[in-house]
Write a structure and sequence with these properties.
two-stranded antiparallel sheet, globular, about 35% helix, alpha+beta
Length: about 625
């Protein structure tokens, strides 16, 4: 193989080594943009190994960064930023953290919360730039057609990953398209394979053009290569089209978003209800792209360990970290929506037999301060255990135990034997074969006792992980997302309503028996948005979509005695103890600050070019 086709091989482990640290000092290390001659690779296999190293970066553990601990690449970023800054996902471990207040997270350029995604995504870009810049597919003399096609697949994959990384950076650090002066405002750094280490800011339109070009080139190369990806945590033409749809949606390029979303999902199916109720821990034909599902890159740092309903830290931390749905979003679901079964909401007391609810817990009791731990993140597990003859101790704890058991027995469609071990921790309960705690162990079936751990009001049963580490095939892109993207993009175009309804019904008819879309105009757009929030809950879209739609973020507090109130604990709402509301104009249009770690080594970066950002915090 000729030297001029060999790319400057980038070992992902080398970059990872700069990120694994016991302090935040690693954030001050300049991004890797070149490597020594000793790292040159001279075979097609070497190119493929470099690509695999980059993909592994998306699924690996970046340890001890001091920010909620579980920062493990892609799953961490889409959860910490896409969900936890929004209004639909409540997490006892995160939502009460004073270091994760909404204003602080978006307005502090010296904070890990802004530095982590900046460093992670520019790390991916540095990695793939070495692949892209070192491959000359115009001069492949001496290579077999098979080897050339393998190289085309590698380059197409690198271009796709680069576009994905820039897309995420634009979601976080750039203004909305409508606020960007048609993309003429400056936003982030456009680092390409031939860029110097220190570069100045680029205009948004330049970044969009680069993403479009990268994806156009990637799709052509994928099709020319005809090579199948080795697994679904790698990328292919379908993933490239899905990322293209996301980028176009961000830019509000509705025709392109509709076109690419339809093409991306063409070979995939919307999840059946049984699949949707199976825990999201393994692949299905609805998954276009998902996280590496094994434990050997994450162990206890896996997304599921911290966020699945049977995650190890959900039990050991005892903070209700499995995640809960905002009840106002839950109320938007029709009563026959299958997705209602995935959340421990007040109406779940209707699942219980009289023998399982001896104290007669009612829906209104979820707003009784003696039964729900308002000062403990609205947890159901720490308060009210049933005592026979006691009019006060009615048994919210008991009700929650049996609701969890009823979900596993009657609604869960996964295989518990696949995702359990000797600890028998599942769905917020630990199952035991013998009575060990006379007060908290409840006999739930012959030979089985259950103890409930910290469980939030609205706790989710959607996500499960393999034991003991909680690893799972967390979805990065699904057919349903593409259908809903297609629906939204069509609805925003003149004459597109019939196409929008058809795409929306592709999801809603599955989830809601008898569903037919009857709305039009703004009501149709609102219905598509609600369907997107419900279907993709917990998968990393909430805050990103709010920003894109230019809608306020609202969190409503739980109020004792008021069943119309929300299910956010007041400790999670900062100074306003009744409702947290953030307007689209806050924090320069919901734009994160460029971290000072970038400013410290990039001497040519001129932050005065930025619109209303980094004004007071840069040093």
């Amino acid at each position: 193989m000729k030297k001029n086709i060999i790319f400057k091989g980038f070992m992902a482990v080398a970059l990872a080594g700069t990120m694994v640290s016991c302090s935040e000092d690693y954030l001050d290390v300049p991004p890797v943009t070149d490597v020594s001659k000793e790292q040159l690779m001279s075979t097609v296999t070497g190119a493929e190994q470099a690509l695999e190293g980059t993909i592994n970066m998306m699924c690996m553990q970046y340890a001890a960064a001091g920010f909620q601990s579980n920062n493990i690449g892609e799953a961490f970023c889409i959860n910490a930023y896409g969900e936890l800054l929004g209004q639909d996902y409540i997490n006892g471990l995160w939502s009460g953290n004073p270091n994760y207040e909404w204003d602080w997270a978006l307005g502090n350029s010296d904070a890990l919360v802004s530095a982590i995604p900046w460093r992670y995504y520019y790390g991916l870009i540095a990695s793939v730039n070495n692949i892209i810049g070192g491959m000359n597919l115009e001069d492949v003399g001496g290579l077999s057609d098979s080897d050339v096609n393998r190289l085309k697949f590698v380059k197409a994959s690198a271009l796709t990953i680069r576009a994905h990384a820039y897309f995420r950076l634009m979601q976080l650090f750039a203004q909305r398209w409508e606020d960007s002066n048609e993309g003429e405002n400056y936003c982030i750094l456009l680092r390409l394979e031939d860029s110097p280490t220190e570069v100045n800011l680029s205009k948004g339109i330049e970044v969009y053009k680069r993403m479009y070009q990268d994806l156009d080139d990637a799709i052509v190369l994928f099709e020319e290569a005809g090579v199948n990806r080795p697994n679904k945590w790698s990328v292919n033409a379908d993933v490239a089209r899905g990322i293209y749809a996301r980028v176009a949606l961000l830019r509000h390029d509705w025709p392109k978003a509709e076109e690419m979303a339809a093409a991306a999902r063409k070979s995939y199916s919307v999840m059946s209800n049984d699949e949707y109720m199976s825990g999201f821990y393994k692949d299905s034909n609805s998954y276009i792209w998902h996280q590496y599902p094994q434990y050997d890159t994450t162990y206890y740092w896996s997304w599921g360990a911290w966020n699945s309903c049977n995650g190890g830290y959900v039990f050991s931390w005892n903070k209700g970290s499995g995640g809960a749905m905002d009840i106002d979003l839950y109320r938007k679901m029709p009563e026959n929506d299958i997705r209602r079964n995935l959340y421990l909401m007040p109406d779940k007391v209707n699942w219980l037999k009289k023998t399982q609810n001896k104290g007669g817990i009612k829906e209104a009791d979820f707003w009784d301060a003696s039964m729900v731990g308002e000062a403990n993140g609205l947890n159901l597990a720490m308060t009210d255990v049933y005592v026979k003859g006691d009019p006060v101790a009615k048994g919210m704890y008991n009700a929650a135990v049996f609701i969890c058991m009823e979900y596993m027995d009657d609604h869960f469609k996964g295989d518990l034997d696949e995702i359990s071990d000797d600890s028998r921790e599942m769905c917020y309960v630990t199952l035991k074969s013998a009575l060990k705690n006379a007060k908290r162990d409840l006999l739930v079936k012959k030979g089985t006792y259950a103890e409930l751990y910290t469980t939030q009001f609205g706790a989710q049963f959607k996500f499960w992980g393999y034991k003991p580490y909680g690893n799972m095939a967390f979805p990065w892109m699904r057919a349903a997302e593409m259908a809903l993207t297609e629906a939204e993009a069509a609805a925003m175009q003149p004459g597109g309503e019939s196409r929008a309804k058809k795409a929306l019904e592709a999801v809603q008819k599955v989830r809601v028996p008898g569903y037919t879309c009857t709305t039009s105009g703004q009501a149709l757009i609102d219905e598509i948005r609600d369907a997107r929030r419900i279907e993709l809950w917990g998968e990393g879209f909430s805050w990103f979509d709010l920003k894109r739609w230019n809608l306020p973020m609202e969190r409503k507090a739980w109020v004792a005695g008021d069943p119309t109130s929300g299910n956010w604990s007041t400790q999670m709402l900062g100074e306003n103890q009744k409702m947290a509301k953030k307007l689209p104009t806050d924090n320069a249009g919901w734009v994160m600050s460029i971290p000072n770690s970038e400013l410290r080594f990039n001497s040519v970066l001129d932050i005065s070019l930025l619109p209303k950002r980094n004004d007071e915090s840069a040093d």
